[in-house]
Design goal:
Number of helices: 6
Distance between the termini: 41 Å
Largest sheet: 6 strands, mixed
Shape: globular
Number of domains: 2
Strand order of the largest sheet: 2-1-3-6-14-15
CATH topology of the largest domain: Rossmann fold
Strand content: 15-25%
CATH class of the largest domain: Alpha Beta
CATH architecture of the largest domain: 3-Layer(aba) Sandwich
Number of strands: 15
Length: 232
Amino acid sequence: MTSPRSPQDTWKQMAGVAAANLIQEGMVVGLGTGSTAAYLVQALSQRIQQGLQIVGAVPSSQATYDLAASLNIPLTDLDIHPELDMYIDGADEIDPQLRLIKGAGGALLREKILASAARRFVVIADPSKKVTQLGHRFPLPVEIVPLAKTPIKLKLSKLGAQVELRHRDNIPFITDNHNYIFDCTFPQGISNPAEVDAQIHSIVGVVETGLFLNLAQQVVIGGPEGVQIFPQ
């Protein structure tokens, strides 16, 4: 017996379908990772079945690659197409300046690479992801080289973070890039995301942070009032 579908799932699907409708003929698109992005991938597959022709899609994770391949979406990579027309992905938190926290799904490095390679980065989400200040609802993921985990944890703690090594099934979570993730909770939130991002990036052994700053151009929110896109 299947569990009843939550309103949040419906809203995620609404956002995914609306974003898939932004994809135009002949585009090279990047596909994000996570539950909302999965709805995008399904909606894009339906559009392709209905006749939409794209040059190809670049997945941001092995999970998204597997889903897109199973749905017969034509796939490519950044070696063949180093510039994307559009990248579409979910977010864990979105502030009023369209700054994001991403990485709950563990694909933050590849997601940021694709976002930075895209002419347009569109974020898809449900209303729960909108926040007034980053860092209150979700910890900030930081991808790190495993060798340096103990020195990095010490330095992150000195920045005021409560640092936890991400685990899955009681063993350290390994990213698609064979790295670890620290989930960093800032008890007062992140008042200056650019400063925190720079401080963390200055730590040797840090690969990337889940702060996505000056990357997102548009947000598509599915919610009880329907789909809202801003800025228009």
